[in-house]
Amino acid sequence: xxxxxxxxxxxxxARFDDYAEEEEGEARFRAEVDALVAELPEGSPLGPFxxxxxxxxxxxxxxxxxxxxxxxxxxxxGVSPHKARQAKIQLASSLRNIGRAEEGVELLRPELDAPSxxxxxxxxxxxxxxxxxxxxxxxALSLALGALAPHMSRYQRSTAAYARxxxxxxxxxxx
Length: 175
Prior knowledge:
The chain is an all-alpha fold. It contains 10 helices and no strands.
């Protein structure tokens, strides 16, 4: 779609808190998303992506899952690789929320090897949540600490080493 449409979508999401926390407001928010989606060409993968996000953000992950899948199946990656990565993160989160964390792990694992962007930490955070949902807490903590380490002003090396050690057979030496 064009930049004007993208700007209006971004502006609506920026006002999301004005709608949240009450069922009537959340329904109004979803209706405004639907109105923007109605402007898209038939078959656009942006429609189910935005609608999925609206259902997800208003605590309806069960409604969001098929919409995210539809967006990806319609070729969201070809329209916006960034939004496709967002869709995978959001889909994995929704899957975890409906008790299908293993599917979330399968979806996000390949994203660890995807070209790096500003969503890298989000991939790791939601993959860690999925892993924790499966009782794989050491692996989840390792991912979370590994993502955090580069942002620390001190102790980066030791934190990264401890993160690796959580899933390795031996403890690291004191760094």
